[in-house]
Specification:
The complex is a heterodimer of chains A (about 250) and B (about 300).
Chain A: E1 4-15, E2 18-29, E3 33-37, H1 44-51, E4 61-69, E5 72-73, H2 81-87, E6 88-91, H3 102-112, H4 118-131, H5 135-138, H6 151-163, E7 169-173, H7 181-194, E8 199-203, H8 207-213, E9 216-221, E10 224-230, H9 231-236, H10 241-247
Helix pairs in contact in A: 3-4, 3-6, 4-6, 6-7
Chain B: H1 2-38, H2 44-48, E1 51-52, E2 57-58, H3 61-92, H4 98-112, H5 115-138, H6 150-174, H7 178-186, H8 191-202, H9 204-220, H10 223-226, H11 248-257, H12 266-298
Antiparallel strand pairs in B: 1-2
């Protein structure tokens, strides 16, 4: 196992009175792909959204325990959430490009970081689009609206937009669930490329996808982390019966 | 039981149909009567010339000009203030916090206050209190601001149209999808950057709709400016916000009640009414079109 990037200690999360995550302890390695699987409502997306404090936006959420990223507790008072989110990018289930041009979508992050130099921005846009494997498809239409792209292209654009901020970690919340198999394949290839430079955490409903793209897999059920380990082991010889039942499709 | 349901359903449909016919009939009657009464007087010259012969003849240019100035100054006050309030309510205040609830209650109440009360408030607050204070402080007690003028009339009208702006902008802001805000925040944008670069651009058509509706309302109202700025007759156009102004709605009132020969001014009254109607119809139609385009975009 490589260096540990993210550690959670007894992470418990409530929506109002309802417990959504129960005492999660996990260690996520750097520059590898970790997949969260489990049936709907098992807490995997909630957990993912805790890692960049996206749950802060929901007033009824209460969190106990610790999330350490590079050894720092991200829920400590002195942590600046805005800076934290620059370090931890997020790709959402539904592609969500802004109603702006392709160029401006990518330039959005750098711009809010104070980069306004046109040459520098052009450079960042090109690199980000190339790294997200969409440059060849859009290089001639950068001033066009991003909303004119296909669903798969939009999702890769969103990945490029995330890369433009130069994060260390990329969280992906079912990034391919709304896409056709070809687009999904492209996203998976991209994930494989990206893990050379980024720590990737992906939530997926699709177990074949988890098996294909991830190095480690965590199985969540009813707010608990049931089993976590090397993907190959989880999918071939899980230690816990529930994991096996879920993976073989007996429930979920 | 079936028969009873059928009867109830039938009578509801009949009643709705009747009310639709009735409303349409009222609109048609108003339009037809106004057009017939005003069409011979309405001309380019009528729109661009001053009243003459003690307002028995001539045009209504000063009233059109004054109405335009009124709605412009009013919008300059009402739109930014209303938009900021709407942004606060949707983005910052917690739905159930007492301050948000108080503002919402105040906005709803403001929308139901009779317009003449706004006029009285403007007279008491803007003219007597603010204007009087300004005269005392800056004019050495000389009378300049403590009297009806364009500024006080416009601000009074702005109070009246504020709820329209707030509600329209709020509605528009709520249509900006949560996903877009999340995308922006996840990229490390602050809340204010997200509002500035994603939320406001995404709700610009709502802000425009609100502005146009407010302008249309402001162009048609008379009561708020009765005491606060509208003039019976002016030989010159207003040149500063401390001048009084003429106004289309007030002009109709003056012609139909204060004129020395009401019957003789009847064609002018109809033509002025027609101008006012066309103005507000056009504005409302524009607002409806923008709004429906916005709604289509959301689907």
């Amino acid at each position: 196992m490589k260096e540990v990037k993210i550690v959670t200690k007894d992470l418990t999360l409530h929506y109002g009175q309802k417990m959504a995550l129960n005492s999660i302890n996990i260690q996520i390695p750097e520059k590898e792909v970790t997949a969260f699987i489990g049936p709907s409502g098992c807490g995997k997306s909630t957990f993912l959204r805790s890692l960049n404090r996206m749950n802060d936006l929901i007033p009824s959420v209460h969190i106990k325990g610790e999330i350490l990223i590079d050894g720092l507790n991200i829920y400590e008072k002195k942590i600046d959430v805005v800076n934290l989110r620059k370090k931890i990018g997020m790709v959402f289930q539904k592609s969500n490009p802004f109603a702006k041009s392709i160029f401006e979508n990518i330039a959005y992050g750098p711009r809010i970081n104070g980069i306004n130099d046109k040459k520098k921005l052009t450079e960042i846009v090109e690199t980000s689009l190339k790294n997200a494997a969409i440059w060849d498809e859009v290089k001639d239409r950068l001033p066009d609206s991003a909303l004119g792209l296909s669903g798969g292209q939009q999702q890769r654009l969103c990945i490029a937009r995330t890369l433009a901020v130069q994060p260390e970690i990329i969280l992906m919340d079912e990034p391919a669930s709304a896409l056709d198999p070809i687009s999904t394949g492209k996203i998976e290839e991209l994930i494989f490329e990206l893990k050379k430079n980024y720590t990737i955490v992906i939530v997926t409903h699709n177990m074949q996808q988890a098996a294909r793209v991830s190095d480690h897999t965590a199985f969540f059920y009813l707010g608990e982390l049931i089993e976590y380990g090397k993907t190959r082991k989880i999918f071939t010889s899980p230690d816990i019966k529930q994991t096996e039942e879920y993976i073989t499709g007996r429930f979920g | 039981m079936r028969l009873k349901n059928k009867l109830i359903g039938g009578s509801i449909i009949t009643a709705s149909a009747l009310s639709v016919v009735l409303i349409l009939a009222i609109i048609v009657i108003i339009l037809v009567v106004t057009i017939i009464g005003g069409k011979d007087t309405l001309s380019w010259k009528f729109l661009t010339s001053f009243p003459t012969d003690g307002m028995m003849k001539g045009g209504i240019f000063p009233a059109i000009y004054g109405t335009a100035l009124l709605v412009i100054v009013m919008s300059l006050a009402a739109v930014p203030f209303g938009a900021i309030t709407a942004i606060y309510l949707t983005e910052y205040a917690h739905e159930k916090s007492w301050i948000a609830q108080t503002i919402r209650f105040a906005v709803r109440t403001l929308a139901t206050v009779p317009s003449i009360i706004f006029g009285l408030f403007g007279l008491g607050f803007f003219i007597k209190y603010v204007g009087g204070g300004m005269d005392h402080l800056f004019m050495g007690g000389q009378l300049k601001w403590a009297q009806p003028n364009l500024l006080w009339g416009s601000l009074t009208m702005a109070l009246l149209t504020l709820p329209v702006v707030i509600v329209s902008v709020e509605e528009a802001i709520r249509t900006v999808p949560r996903e877009l805000r999340e995308a922006s925040l996840a990229l490390g944008a602050t809340k204010w950057q997200t509002i500035k670069k994603v939320v406001i651009p995404g709700s610009i058509s709502g802000i425009m709709t609100g502005t146009i509706l407010a302008v249309s309302r402001g162009a048609g109202e008379v009561a708020p400016i009765l005491f606060t700025g509208a003039a019976y007759y002016l030989a010159t156009l207003p040149t500063s916000v401390s001048d009084q102004f003429m106004n289309l709605g007030y002009h109709i009132y003056v012609l139909s009640t204060q004129s020395s020969n009401v019957d003789q001014t009847l064609p002018i009254q109809f033509a002025t009414t027609l101008v006012l109607l066309m103005l507000t119809f056009t504005l409302n139609l524009t607002a409806v079109l923008i709004r429906s385009r916005l709604r289509r975009r959301i689907k």
